[in-house]
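Lab notebook page, bench 4
Experiment: in silico fold of construct C2
Operator: M.H.
Input chain length: 198 residues
Purpose: comparison with the prior construct
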Amino acid sequence: MLNLAVIAGSGRPDSQSKKVAQYLLARSQALQIASPDSQLIDLGGDPLPLWPSEDSQQRWPVIEQQLCKAEALIVISPEWHGMATPAIKNFFLYANQALLGHKATLLVGISAGVGGAYPISELRASGYKNCRIGYIPEHLIIRQVETVLNQAEPESDADQRIRTRADYALKILHAYATALTPIREALLQQQPNFATGM
């Protein structure tokens, strides 16, 4: 089983992104993909200071420890005005290659309506450069998020479909994370001459 870090990238406390993060973490544990010590990182409930402000409450060191232990990640961003959230973009300013480099990562876009694709596109384009996070080809987009993943059992066909798709994506994440473990170890043993991406 993997030590999994699930990052809820909304800047709002008690967000729909946090709800989805809790569901995916619990489901990955039920599928015996994630270990019991896997953790949720909620950027809305415990926000990081806007980079490069001083982290006076020492929030980042706690997150840093969780990321060090993580073998794979799920990164969740709601779509706000067609963009990934400031909270998740700010997170990537803190993170680095030692923490995230070559770790298999499932992207999840969230929308209260029929959107949700733009955060996926944006993070694939710009959220990996210096940290070398390893986004897998599969991703999830959870539309009409307020109507799904609310109860133990699905409440509609759409709810059942996204749960089935989530299981599929989690299994793919597990396969990639398992395969990337020796690659990651080999790459991180090298002295990096190129600390930042091109």
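Observations: The chain has a mean pLDDT of 95. The domain at 4-189 is CATH 3.40.50.360 (Rossmann fold).
Next step: discuss at group meeting.
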